[in-house]
Amino acid sequence: MRLYDYVLSPSCYKVRLMAALSGVKLEIRPVDFHPGAEHRGPELMALNPGGSIPILEDGDLILTESSAMLGYLAAKAAPAWLGSGAPEETARIQQWLSFSHRLTASLGGARLHEMLLRPGDIGALQANGIAALRELEAGLFEQKMRGNRFLACDRPTIADIACFPYVALAPDGGVSLDPYPTIRLWSRALRSLDNFIEMPGIHRLHELKPEPRPCPDEA
Amino acid sequence: MLSDKTDTWVPVALSQDLPTGQAMPARTLAGPIALWRSQSGRLAASADRCPHRGMRLSHGFVRGEALSCIYHGWTYSQAGRCLRIPAHPSLTPPETIRVATRSVEEAGGIVWVADGEPDGKPPLFEGYVPLRSLTVRAGGSALSAATGTKAAVEGFVWRAPGAPAIRLLPVPQETGETLIHVLVPADCGVSERVAASRAAESLRRMAERIEAKEAVP
Questions:
Q1: Is B194 in contact with A188 (Cβ distance < 8 A)?
Q2: What are the backbone dihedrals phi and psi of residue B153, each rounded to the nearest 5 degrees, phi first?
Q3: Spatial distance between the Cα atoms of A101 and A4, rounded to a whole number of angstroms
Q4: Which fold has domain A2-80?
C-alpha cells in the first residue's frame, strides 16, 4: 500500500496515524507539496485529477479522500475502528466524518494562510474554525455525559482520527485551543493510545515514557 | 460580577477538567497561569511562562510531583522552585530560578485561584454540581441582557425553556470575554445535563448577538 505523503499535511497524517494504530505498513512516497507543487504535476494529476494529497494506492484501488482511506485501513486491519455497527454509532461516525471537512476548510484554511501565505479571508476562516471547535466541544461534552470518551462511543473510531489533526494544529492558524477543556481531555486520550505517532506540531505525551537519564559515561 | 481585587478567589476551572498528572491553561486578571495536578492529586498554579525561554508551562507535562516545561525540560516544584535542568544533570539549580506561584484551592468541584492571600475559603454552592465551562465573547452587560438577570458575584440562577434551572458563575476575563461555569442541581440525570449544556450554548449565542449589536455605532 503506497501513500503519497507530505509530512506537514494534517490529512496525510490522518492516514499515517490510522495505519500506525491499526498495524498496517505503508510505503511512503514523499511529495514536494511546498514549494514544488508536485501534487499539481503530471505524474500525480494522472493518479488524482483533483490535484490533492494524500493519495493511497493499493493495486488497482486509488483513493483520494482521507476519510475513505481511514475506512479502508480499518476495514482491512482493525475493524473495531469502524464501530460496533449499532445504528446510532454508525450515524455518529458518519456525522463526524462529514464534519471533519469543515475543520479542514476552516482551521486548515487558516493554517495554510498563516504558514504558506495562501490567499483567503483569515478572519472568516478563524471564525468558522472557532464555530466548529465549539460544536466539537459540545458534542464531546454530551458524549462524556453518556459515558463515552470518544465521538461515536467509548472507544476511538475513524471519526476521531478524521477530526483530531486539524483540531490539534488549530494554533498554527492563530486559533487558540485554551477555551475547550473537553477537547483537551479527548486529545490526551487519543495521544495516550498504544502505537500513537507524532507529526510536527503534535507531540507525544512525554510523561507516558520513562524519564530520560544521562548515560553513565556522560554524567 | 466578581471583584477584581487580587486577594479574591477566582473560579478558573472545574476539577473534572484537570485529572491527576495533567496541566492546563487558565487566566486570572493578573495574567495567564499554568494549572496542574500532581500524581498524588495536589493542585498548583504558576505563571504560564518558563523563566528559561518563555514557553507556556501549561504546554508542559507532569511527572510525579513536578511540572516540566515542554521545551527544554526545566522542572518545577509546586512551590515554583526549579528542581532540575536536564541539560545540566549534575547541577542543583540555584534558588533564584523560580516561577511565580498563585494560591489555589478546590471547593465543590471548582478550582479557585487568588493572586494574593485571601482571608476566607472559596464559597460552596449547596445542592449544585459543576457541569461544564465555556467562554463567551461578551461582557457582563450583554450577559445580563440575555438572561434578564443581573450577573452577580456569587453567580445567578437562570432557567431556559426545557432545561433545568442552572446556576451560572460568570468570570470576567481581561480580554473582555466572560468565562462561565455552568452548575446544575446535583440530582440531574443525563438527559437534563445534556439539556442544560444545550441551554448554555443558546445563552452564549444570545449574549454574543447582543454584544455584537452594542459594538456597532
A1: no
A2: -50, -50
A3: 20
A4: Glutaredoxin (3.40.30)
Please give the residue of chain B at the shortest CA–CA distance from A137. Answer: B134
pLDDT, one tens digit per residue, over B29-65 is 889 999 999 999 999 999 999 999 999 999 999 999 9
B62 CA: distance to closest CA in chain A (Å): 6
Question: Is there a contact between A181 and B13 if contact means CB atoms under 8 Å apart?
Answer: yes
CB within 8 Å: B133 and A181: yes
Q: Which CATH number fits domain B10-114: 3.30.420.270, 2.170.150.20, 2.102.10.10, 2.40.110.10?
A: 2.102.10.10
d(CA A177, CA A133): 8
B23 touches chain A (CB under 8 A): no
Q: How far is A193 from chain B (nearest CA, A)?
A: 16
| Domain range annotation of chain B | 10-114, 128-215
Question: Any chain A CB within 8 A of the CB of B201?
Answer: yes
C-alpha cell at A47: 493518479
Asked if ipTM goes beyond 0.90, one says yes
CATH of A83-191, one of 2.130.10.10, 3.20.20.80, 1.10.760.10, 1.20.1050.10: 1.20.1050.10
Strand ranges of the sheet holding B110-114, from the earlier edge strand across to the other edge: B10-14, B110-114, B103-107
Q: Is A138 on the interface with B (CB under 8 A)?
A: yes
Nearest CA-CA partner of B124 in B154, B103, B152, B150: B154
Report how far Cα B125 is from the mean position of its chain's Cα atoms.
17
Q: Where are the domains of chain A?
A: 2-80, 83-191
**CA distances from residue B189 to A143, B156, B192 in whole angstroms, order as listed:** 14, 21, 5
CATH of domain B128-215: 3.30.70
- Yes or no, beta carbons of A145 and B24 under 8 Å apart: no
With H, G, I as helix, E, B as strand and everything else as coil, classify residue B207: helix
> Which chain B residues are within 8 Å of A206, Cβ to Cβ?
61, 63, 68, 70
How does pLDDT run across B158-195, given as a tens digit for each residue? 998 888 899 999 999 989 999 999 999 999 999 999 99
CA–CA gap between residue A114 and residue A130 (Å, rounded): 16
Residues of chain A with pLDDT under 70: 217-219
**Contact call for B194 and A145, based on CB within 8 A:** yes
> Which residue, among A149, A178, A192, would best test binding to B if mutated, counting the most B CBs under 10 Å from its CB?
A178
* pLDDT-above-90 percentage for chain A: 95
Interval A172-207: pLDDT, tens: 999 999 999 999 999 999 999 999 999 999 999 999
